Amino acid sequence: AQRVTQPEKLLSVFKGAPVELKCNYSYSGSPELFWYVQYSRQRLQLLLRHISRESIKGFTADLNKGETSFHLKKPFAQEEDSAMYYCALRAKGGSEKLVFGKGTKLTVNP
Amino acid sequence: GAGVSQSPRYKVAKRGQDVALRCDPISGHVSLFWYQQALGQGPEFLTYFQNEAQLDKSGLPSDRFFAERPEGSVSTLKIQRTQQEDSAVYLCASSLSPALSQQFFGPGTRLTVL
C-alpha cells in the first residue's frame, strides 16, 4: 500500500527564517514524489517533482530513499509562501493516481 | 490558455438526492482524474480515465458513485442517493499523457449534503 505522511498540520515561521516541511512515504516499489501547493482561493498546483531536481520559488526537495522522505526546504521564507502544501506520491509503472498527504499549512509572519 | 474547469462550483443537496458534477479538462489531455477532498484532509483518489476508458475506479467509495467520460473529453461524476458523508470538495485533474506527466487541477466543486 502507498501512504504519504506529513506530520505537521500547521507550521509558522517568521519572514527570512528557514523553513522545512516534512514528508515521509511508504511504498515498496519505485516512487515518484511531488509537492503541490494551494494558495488562498486558488487551485492546487504543482510546485516541484523529484525527477526534475529543480528549484521553484526558492524551494528544493531531495528524495531520500533510505529514510523514505521528501522534505521541502527553503532557506529564507517569504510572506507570499503562506499556503497549504501537499506531498504526493505516484507509483512508477502503476496506476497514474496520486496519493496525497493530509497537508501542512505554512504561515510566514512578517 | 484555459485550464481545467468544473461546474457547478458549489452544490447543496438534500440527503437522498442525486447529483452530477462536471469536469472539462484541458483540450487534448488524454488522462482525467477525480479526487475527493474532505475538510482538513488531502485529496483522495476516486477514479481515472485514459481517453474514454475508465482504467482505475478503485477509489470510488460505494456503488452510489459513478463516473463517465463517453467521448474522451468531458467527464461527469454522479453520486446517487447522497449521504452527509459525501460532503466534500470534488477535484478534477487532467494530464497530457499517462506517463511522467503533470496533473493540472480544476477549482473543485464543493458539495454540501444536508
Brief sketch in words of this structure:
Chain A has no helices and eleven strands. Chain A is mainly beta and about 110 residues long.
**Distance between the ends of chain A:** 41 Å
- Shape by Cα distribution of chain A: globular
Low-confidence stretches of chain A: none
**What is the CATH architecture descriptor of chain B?**
Sandwich
**Named CATH topology of chain A:** Immunoglobulin-like
* H/E series of chain B: EEEEEEEEEEE
CATH 4th-level superfamily of chain B: Immunoglobulins
What is the overall number of helices of chain B? 0
Estimate the strand proportion of chain A.
35-45%
List key phrases describing it:
heterodimer, A: 110 residues, mainly beta, Immunoglobulin-like, 6-stranded mixed beta sheet, 3-stranded antiparallel beta sheet, globular, B: 114 residues, 7-stranded mixed beta sheet, 4-stranded antiparallel beta sheet
Report on the structure:
Chain A is mostly beta strands and 110 residues long. Chain A has strands at 3-5, 10-14, 19-21, 24-26, 31-38, 45-49, 60-61, 72-74, 83-91, 99-100, 104-109. Chain A has one domain: Immunoglobulins (Immunoglobulin-like). In chain A, strands 2, 5, 6, 9, 10 and 11 form a six-stranded mixed beta sheet that branches. A three-stranded antiparallel beta sheet of chain A has the order 3-8-7, with no helix packed on it. In chain A, strands 1-4 form a two-stranded antiparallel ribbon. Chain B has a single domain (5-96), classed as Immunoglobulin-like, CATH 2.60.40.10. The chains are: A mainly beta (110), B mainly beta (114). Chain A binds chain B through residues 4, 6, 32, 43-46, 49, 51, 86, 88, 95-103, and chain B through 3, 31, 33, 35, 40-45, 48, 50, 55-56, 58-59, 91, 95, 98-100, 102-108.
Secondary structure: elements and pairs:
The complex is a heterodimer of chains A (110) and B (114).
Chain A: E1 3-5, E2 10-14, E3 19-21, E4 24-26, E5 31-38, E6 45-49, E7 60-61, E8 72-74, E9 83-91, E10 99-100, E11 104-109
Parallel strand pairs in A: 2-11
Antiparallel strand pairs in A: 1-4, 3-8, 5-6, 5-9, 7-8, 9-10, 9-11
Chain B: E1 5-7, E2 10-13, E3 19-24, E4 31-37, E5 44-50, E6 53-56, E7 65-68, E8 75-79, E9 88-95, E10 104-105, E11 109-113
Parallel strand pairs in B: 2-11
Antiparallel strand pairs in B: 1-3, 3-8, 4-5, 4-9, 5-6, 7-8, 9-10, 9-11
